[in-house]
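Minutes, project check-in
Item: structure for the 191-residue chain
Input as provided by the requester:
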Amino acid sequence: MINYIWFFILGFGIILGVFTGRGADISKVIVSSTESTVKLTISLLGIMCLWCGVMKIAEKSGLTDKLAKILKPILKLIFKEASKDEKAMGAIVMNLTANMMGLSNAATPFGIKAMKELDRLNKKNSSASDDMALFLVINAACIQFLPTTVISMRAAVGSQNPGETILPGIIATGTAALFGIVFCKILQRYF
């Protein structure tokens, strides 16, 4: 559906521009925007390679494992059924650890695996379990200790201090995760 909406907006804009005599302006904007898009993409590619390398070092040095060891006891308190299953907890911990370190591309396969494991534990096949809903909320509002994508984007567009969003990001994502967990637990009691 969203593809149709974007196609309509783009088509309507081009047709309106041609009928109002601004076809040349549209062509100039298209060419200049594609040029700036390519430059931004190349800048982001280099920065993302750097962050992926830093995160790989963190993984190899055992930093992500230490974070996982810290998370496991906390998550065992939060999840009801999944806390009893080592496979499900392992996938959940790896997903959240990767997200916390800003490795969303590495977190996605762990998130899919965690959801499959939670589905395996689900007694009601027709709907999501409480643990599945809680995992989605925590995953969506995951605490970001190192928001590499935001830092990369800010650096690519020439920010003077691309890392200044780290502390506000930790506060915002931490608050969102905390409230998400609290509201999930409240809703679990009534639904």
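Outcome recorded: Residues 53-190 form one domain.
No further action items on this chain.
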